[in-house]
Design goal:
The chain is α+β, with helices and mostly antiparallel strands. The chain folds into 2 domains: about 60 residues, no CATH class; about 70 residues. Helix content is about 60%, strand content about 20%. The protein is built from 5 helices and 4 strands. It has a 4-stranded antiparallel beta sheet with strand order 2-1-4-3. β1 and β2 form a beta hairpin. The longest helix has 30 residues. The radius of gyration is 21 Å and the shape is elongated. The two termini are about 25 Å apart.
């Protein structure tokens, strides 16, 4: 929370300006606005169309995430947290059927298999892919 959400909402982050060709989606230009300059200009996120181009001005959270996940310790903590999330989501999925009175003996295998596949493996693995990408690939 401190590295991403708090930093995005209240921290000093550089901003990016993207100019994208509206008809093709091709990136025309990309510029960085230093955090101090953005603060002095009281910059706000905006998306607008101008002369056939989409102009997007936003905080550069990508750079913050990329820099944070270069740290092996932070990446390991995040990946381990996704393992805990896996258990939490799996338990919640199975408990929802029990709470709603929909847990039947003949559907037990389906509930366990679907829950394990989607909430126990796929969702946490996709979240864990982000630090793995920045740690090993980028």
């Amino acid at each position: 929370m401190a590295n991403f959400w708090y930093n995005y909402k209240f921290g000093s982050i550089d901003w990016k300006t993207y100019v994208v060709e509206a008809s093709t989606g091709k990136l025309v230009t990309e510029d960085t606005i230093p955090a101090a300059e953005a603060l002095a200009q009281n910059l706000q996120p905006v998306t607008m169309e101008y002369m056939g181009n989409n102009i997007i001005i936003c905080k550069d959270l990508y750079s913050v995430v990329a820099e944070a996940f270069k740290s092996p310790a932070l990446s390991a903590f995040y990946i381990l947290s996704m393992a805990a999330l896996s258990y939490h989501l799996l338990h919640g999925f199975q408990s929802a059927f029990h709470t709603l009175g929909l847990r039947r003996k003949r559907y037990e295998t389906l509930i366990r298999t679907a829950g394990l596949a989607v909430f126990g493996v796929i969702i946490p693995a996709l979240f864990a892919a982000m630090p793995i990408y920045f740690l090993f690939v980028k």
